[in-house]
Amino acid sequence: MKHLIDPMDLSKQETDEIISLAQDIIAHRERYQGSMSHRKLATLFYEPSTRTRLSFTSAMMELGGNVLGFSDARSSSVSKGETVQDTVRVVGCFAEFIAMRHYIEGAQLYASEVSPVPIINAGDGSHSHPTQTLTDLLTIQRELGHIDGITIGFCGDLRFGRTVHSLIKALSRYKDIKVVLIAPQELKLPDYIKHDVCERTGIPYREVETMEEVMSELDVLYMTRVQKERFLDEDEFDRVKDSFVLDAARMALAKEKMAVLHPLPRVNEILTEVDADPRAAYFRQVENGKFVREALIVKLHEWKNDPDHGMPEHDKPVYDETLHCGNLKCICNQEKAPYKFRRSEDGTLRCWYCDAKVR
Ligand code: NCD
After folding, report:
1. On the chain, which terminus has fewer CB atoms closer than 10 Å, C or N?
2. Taking residues 158-183, what's their average pLDDT?
């Protein structure tokens, strides 16, 4: 069965199919109305959300299906101590798809090991957010007419911004991508993305300190919010919270054909004076999120029992009882998921669920 836990669970071809189906849905909305009638999507949100949850709901409604679920785990049996594995076993009896957001990293991967229905990861801690990635790819395609060949600047919280991690992974399969990382020291991209994704796949990346020095090179500027809720130290958050702000003066340095993306919500990193600029694509990006989720649901349904569209073959996990994952926000430290590791090409062992380096 096909789940979407990580952007790489989709092959490049499957990703392309979803992006082009989304474009067909945009062009011929009436053709898809009713394609999910009598089917149900459960949205299990253990963490706040506006766009992601409502765009899943709206997508399923547009397809003629129904939606059930919770947006506050305190109102579910989780508050009685139910595990994510038991929860999806139960909810899988009521719905054909489950979209789950969790503050614990790896929760959806762990849940997918027992789920009777496809699990869609709607964001796990600061780890991954693959449906935002599909939204971002569709937006780049629609704004610029192509994804291959772009230079993309990621700006802001590259450490905790899960949308950044997932989009870089997905972009590693397109041609001639160049990545520029614009972040303060404290918010730099995690090593596993730099090494296991950029260096292994050969995406050129460079790290810079100011937006001004790269603005004129960018085809896409991907702005992000500093993720206050992920900081363990409030002083550290206060030091970096206002690091980068996009304003009209900085936009004046950019190419005429450029797209500003932001997964939203924004706090203060894009001034509202930028909103009227035709290159500001972030509200169009929100709408793309609904169409791409419609396409994803249709495709997951189509692929459900198709052996050609299963999960990709992963390397075999390494079990070692003498090691454990040091990430307190990982599922294996929260729900006694087994300590399981994957070995990177350079010999490093990483947690199976959250990618934290173990050795
Ligand atoms: C993002 C998220 O939840 O990771 N929002 C979204 O899903 N559109 C970004 C964020 O919260 O900053």
Report:
1. C
2. 96
Residue 207 CA to residue 87 CA, distance in Å, equals: 42
Q: Contact at 8 Å (CB) between 159 and 190?
A: yes
pLDDT surpasses 80 at 281: yes
Pick the closest to residue 152 from 82, 85, 84, 203 (CA basis). Answer: 203
d(C-alpha 248, C-alpha 271), whole Å = 8
Q: Supply the pTM of this predicted model.
A: 0.96
The fold of 315-359 is SH3 type barrels. (2.30.30)
Residue 165, token pair as written in the block: 């991690």
Give residue-wise pLDDT tens across range 146-162: 999 999 999 999 999 99
3-state SS, 196-217, equals HHHHHHCCCEEEECCCCCCHHH
d(CA 215, ligand 1 centre) in Å: 24
Strand order in the sheet with 97-102: 66-70, 40-45, 97-102, 119-124
Per the CATH hierarchy, to which homologous superfamily does domain 7-129+287-309 belong?
Answer: Aspartate/ornithine carbamoyltransferase (3.40.50.1370)
Answer yes or no: are the C-beta atoms of 35 and 296 closer than 8 Å.
Answer: no
pLDDT tens string 23-37: 999 999 999 999 999
263 CA distance to ligand 1 centroid (A)? 6
